[in-house]
Design goal:
This is Restriction endonuclease subunit S. Residues 19-181, 265-376 form the Type I restriction modification DNA specificity domain. Keywords: DNA-binding, Endonuclease, Hydrolase, Nuclease, Restriction system. GO terms for molecular function: endonuclease activity. The chain is of the alpha+beta class. It has 2 domains: 3-155, Adenine-n6-DNA-methyltransferase TaqI, Chain A, domain 2 (Alpha-Beta Complex); 205-348, Adenine-n6-DNA-methyltransferase TaqI, Chain A, domain 2 (Alpha-Beta Complex). It is built from 11 helices and 23 strands. A hairpin with a 2-residue loop joins strand 1 and strand 2 (14-18).
Length: 394
């Protein structure tokens, strides 16, 4: 009996194996950045930040042979799995060429007679919640190698592994196509904005303080509330986490909590407002969302509502170009205040021109909404396939 065969346990007709028994794990390292002899070579070197969510690599550094001999950095060959185990935990890629990597990444090489590389990649993707739940660290979170090494993986025969991986890969590529289409539509909207306003900025004589053309809302403690299950009246009770809720990528249409009553006057804003984080590390995400129905903000959110001279579509796209971190204050905990935003200068074109922009963008938004709906359906399908794949039901 081989080592691989002895590692496999028969459970309910589907073999299971422990990754440590059928994979090799390699650590990376970072050459001393103060040593110029270590950088500028020909070997791509990556950290977790150089792996995109879709698995593409974008190396920003090249290291030398000297760096490889005098540091913990090492090179792995094409086909090696690269799993981010520190910082952006759970991102995974397959090396398309020889590459070196930092200590934020664990390289995994499966035993070829037992485990298909693409199948293992799909399995690791399915473990994102597990990795996140096991991440530890006060400021920089990560998982230990043992968290990965001790994972049990369903292990059908290689042809079946390849079949499962191909199904999941095809579903994932359909999702990627929808995301790419949305990105193109986003670029189209921004192009319309630039053509109508940015390129002709000098022709607009009116420039105002943001505080003179918008009303501000500061969050406060949420009072009461119950689970939102689609109620079409009342007030959404919004937290920063609701900005990441599926379907809320651009416009806030739902939340975890809801209330039939408004909150504090300073925290209750109308539909057609823009919200953004105002405290902590979430400011750096630079996320802004348009609220499509009345809502109450918690203390970590802030909102602005345009007055009569500013159209919400114009405000939203102008604000999208604005970097929140350029205004945040606070030493240990970054934060935004009304006094930071009030004096920000905003060009205010004639309202008719803003409304022309809004009409053009509305058509693009309808297309985007169709793609977002289809993407949500594909996400649900992919999660179902992923769940079934590793239970022997696909």
């Amino acid at each position: 009996m081989t080592v691989v065969e002895s590692a496999i346990q028969e459970t309910g007709g589907t073999p299971l194996a422990i990754l440590r028994d059928i994979c090799r794990f390699d650590s990376g390292g970072t050459p001393d950045r103060a040593n110029s002899d270590f950088y500028g070579g020909t070997t791509p070197w990556i950290s977790g930040a150089d792996i995109a969510p879709d698995g593409r690599l974008s190396p920003r550094s090249q290291i030398t042979e000297l760096a490889l001999t005098r540091s913990a950095a090492r090179v792995v060959g094409p086909g090696t799995i690269l799993l981010v185990t520190r910082t952006s935990v759970g991102k995974v890629a397959i090396a398309p060429y020889p590459v070196s990597f930092s200590q934020d990444i664990t390289a995994i090489t499966p035993s070829p007679e037992a485990l298909d590389t693409s199948y293992l990649v799909e399995f690791l993707k399915s473990q994102q919640d597990y990795f996140t739940g096991n991440a530890r660290g006060a400021t920089i979170k990560g998982i230990t190698r043992d968290v990965v090494r001790n994972l049990s993986i369903p292990l059908p025969r290689l042809p079946e592994q390849r079949r499962i991986a191909a199904i999941l890969d095809k579903a994932d590529r359909l999702r990627a196509q929808r995301r790419e289409a949305l990105a193109h539509l986003d670029a189209l909207t921004q192009s319309i904005f630039n053509d109508m306003f940015v390129l002709n900025l000098n022709t607009f004589t009116e420039v105002h303080d943001l505080g003179n053309v918008c009303d501000f809302y500061a969050g406060s403690s949420l009072r009461g509330g119950e689970s939102w299950t689609g109620q079409d009246h009342g007030f959404l009770q919004l937290k920063v986490s609701d900005m990441n809720r599926r379907g809320n990528e651009v416009q806030i249409r739902g939340a975890a909590l809801w209330s039939g009553k408004p909150g504090a006057k300073s925290a209750t804003l109308p539909a057609g407002s823009i919200i953004f984080p105002k405290r902590g590390a979430s400011i750096a995400t630079n996320k802004k969302r348009t609220v499509m129905r009345p809502a109450v903000l918690d203390p970590n959110l802030m909102g602005i509502t345009p007055r009569a001279s500013v159209d919400i579509y114009y405000l939203h796209h102008w604000f999208e170009k604005f970097d929140l971190t350029s205004l945040s204050s606070g030493s240990s905990v970054p934060q935004l205040n009304k006094k930071d935003l009030f004096p920000v200068q905003i060009p205010v074109p004639p309202l008719e021109l803003q409304q022309t922009f809004a009409r053009r963008v509305a058509g693009v938004e309808r297309l985007k909404e169709q793609h977002r709906t289809q993407l949500a359906e594909l996400d649900t399908l992919f999660e179902s396939l992923q769940h079934r794949a590793f239970r022997g039901e696909l």
